[in-house]
Model the fold of this input.
Amino acid sequence: MDLSGKVINQLPEVSGSSKSGNSWRKQEYIIETGGQYPKKVCVSIWGDKIDQFALKVGEQVTLGIDVESREYNGRWYTEVKAYKVDRSQGGAGAPVMPEVDTFYSESEEDKLPF
Done:
């Protein structure tokens, strides 16, 4: 699933150790979607992806996300986790397509390889 929008806030990084002793870290960002009725979504990034993605407030991004819910003490908690970031929409605009040479030629030499 994809989520597109603008990064409007970065929450403090949280870290700790699991029951098995492995260290973990999580960074959460607030993404505001576009459209007539914009929505705000809290998105989590885990581990090394925090440094790899390096999201900044004000950036326009498209995130590949997974939505996961789990039950704890009779209550359900939902988390939106980002696994991919695409910045092609932000700032620079759409990539420019190169000019294509046509196959039509007035000369007798055929440009087609077959």
Q: What stands out?
A: Strands lie at 2-10, 14-17, 23-32, 40-46, 60-72, 75-86.
